[in-house]
Amino acid sequence: MQTTHGGGGRSTIAALALGAVGLLLLHPPPAPAAEPARRPNIVFILFDDMGYGQPPCYRPGSEFKTPHLDRLAREGMRFTDAHSASSVCTPTRYGVLTGRYPWRIGQFGVLTHTSPPIIEPERLTVASLLRAQGYHTACFGKWHLGLRLKDGAAPGAPVRDGPLARGFDVFYGYTEARSIEALVAQDQLAARQPAVAVQPLLAKRAAAFIAQHARGAGTNAPPPFFLYVPLSVPHTPIVPAPEYAGKSGAGPYGDWLFEGDAVVGQIMDALDRGRLADDTLLLVSSDNGAAGRVYAPLRGCKTSIYEGGHREPFLARWPGHIRAGAVCDDTICLNDLLATCAELTGARLPDNAAEDSFSILPDLLGTATGPVRPATVHQSMRGDLAIRQGPWKLIFLTNGRRELYNLQDDLSETKDLAAAKPDVVARLQQLMQTYIANGRSTPGAPQRNAVTVSLSGGAGGKAGRKNKAGKVKGARPRPSAEPE
Ligand SMILES: [Ca+2]
Q: Which CATH number fits the domain 376-467, given the four candidates 4.10.320.10, 3.30.1120.10, 3.40.50.10300, 3.90.420.10?
């Protein structure tokens, strides 16, 4: 078992590249490895704006009720240092599905209902990798990665270049939170639904998808499945269904979060009913910090470069493989899903994919002997970047300033040590520049970023992020009215 950064497939590629047989590595498709793979079902549930300080399993005494997340923490592994790639929706989701930092494509802001797709058509995604490995792939929920849909289109209108063109066999959901009523079924705009009805409907579909696989489990070779469930909870609109209204004791927002937790419960129940729980890796996290809610000791919240913006709850359960009640303090990133899925299924990652994704399987299995990631990059909505290595976090603010924090001593990021520790600043800045120049942070052949990325800053947050033509690409390309 690989116990340091990088999965088996990634490490193999790196070793081959070092052996100067790069011709083989130009654009190989994902291919099954020789070793028989463990092929669990994979379920990834992504909350929308759930903060690190919200589930009681992360903050004892929390005013919110998330009994199913708390149960997952007891039955699986709770990560304390997991990060979304970004502190807002769209860029985080790009990282989740592609394993590549969204700043490499200049994506700092969020998309609107009719924004075009931002995942490149040929790019490997978690879904397309798993589909190539024989998985049945489905997404029920909030896409928010763009697709082709005419503004004002009526039900029945075609939807192109959406989830079905990025590796999913099944999609039922909506493009972004403000359009939650405008459901898309596969590649068509479906009949509108009242906002309050949407999350229950999607949860039911997700459970039915699992049940369908459970019924097929008696066949000779049932396909494993990948189920991606991006919830709209607790993002606005806050629309708890009647059965959850008034049940949390924490107001409508708390009820809405309680409903999201109940969806996790419904998926766990569906796995139990189908006798699939033992064969399923279940992962739950959130795409960014809570909106406008700061939870000590973390500084900041959604949209921020500080920890409250991107440090997320992250729970993992796989009975018989992940030790129940385990706590992992390793630094991981939601980008790591792709390399983890590759290692789980024995797939080899091509060089032009998953450039910033490290398999966390050693953490999950308890075999890691060191950090799975050499360093991790964060980004804020306005375009700040930060690089984290061990206890150190160096922030590159868009105004050109640098801030350095030691998170081991100062998790709340109160003491800027940039002036006191120039050696650490220089080392981390050099590493960040290497990550930019190489187009990747994983081992492998250098790749090209889609935009020019500079750490110079110095012009109100926009100067550092330019597109290929040198034209200023705003720190919030394709923004909507409010952050997601
Ligand atoms: Ca979000």
A: 3.30.1120.10
